[in-house]
Amino acid sequence: MPQTMLVTGATGFIAKHIAVKLLNAGHFVRGSLRSMDRATEVIEVLQPHMAGRRDLTERLDFAVLDLARDAGWVEAMDGVDVLMHTASPFPMTQPKDDNDLIRPAVDGTLRALRAAQGAGIKRVILTSSSAAIIGTDLSDGRDRYDEGDWTNPDRPGTTAYTKSKTLAERAAWEFVTHEAPDMQLTAINPVFVLGPPLDKHYGTSLQVIERCLRGKDPMLPQFAFPIVDVRDVAEAHLRALERPETAGHRIIVADKTLWFHEMAEVLKADHPDRKITTRKAPNALVQVLGLFDPAIRSILPTLGRFDQASNARARDMLGLDFISAEDAVRAAGAWLVEDGRV
Ligand code: NAP
User: For residue 104, what are the contacts with CB-CB under 8 A and spacing of at least 6?
Assistant: First the structure.
């Protein structure tokens, strides 16, 4: 049965893919924006992806919401059946003050949940992150993280973004446990999201692919990322909605982990005309570069680590069969090149 969803952060890389999935499944979407000025832009991005449906403007509307402000949240929930809370700041570089990320993430999540509770909305899908899972040590001989793991936000070197996602997801579960026991919350925990964006507003994650394709770095830092395609992340949100048994669960969405140089090899094979390096930089050198390059500095805690995340629950509960990490890299690279971004 068609339902009405409030999708927060509708200008985002992932949220636009979620909106496409929801609209094509026949649902109504209210997208939240920080300014109504971006409504036309979002409509124009979504329209070409409407599988044969011409009634987009009858099934899509917008609300102006800011994670850091109370204005508009009550009104935005009017007529809504399900809250999909994806909005959260995800900058490329970390701020001087961790609270610049933590406060909007945590307070915004609680604002969204309180407003949903006030409107009698029982179903909530939260876009959390593997950042809320992977920032701890695997102590008992396991080779990959699963949904039972929680990042320790107090661990030295934890970035503001990681703290923000961990504390926001914690706050959501605590809210549901203590203040809204009727609320059915599912957290979707994507790993590093690649794949094709729908437009040029593709946020932070594709900047890694941009950097590879530009070929300016003579060597690549030994970083490894578990990867998932954005189309699978969106599908996971839709399937979580369709499967009420996912309530009360965190679900990692992930294909496999690739080293940075393995991503570069995929891109080099697809774009042989480009000067793409696949050479590995010594870790000591990257530590020094991190002193000058804030983008490198923000991921130094993962230098040399090959963290893997289990997708067993996503396969089991959501029935997902993941697009390969290599194809997610390939699709991101192809889009960036075809669109002339690099
Ligand atoms: P994105 O493209 O940067 O989208 C973030 C969205 O949040 C944008 O719509 C942004 O609005 C909105 N937002 C940020 N601060 C806000 C505020 N103070 N008030 C209202 N809206 C605000 O990032 P994304 O990659 O799609 O990420 C979406 C969600 O997925 C986030 O929760 C992120 O933590 C999570 N996630 C992402 C990845 C990944 O690799 N991309 C992995 C795991 C989890 P504006 O357009 O106005 O800035």
Answer: 67, 68, 88, 89, 164
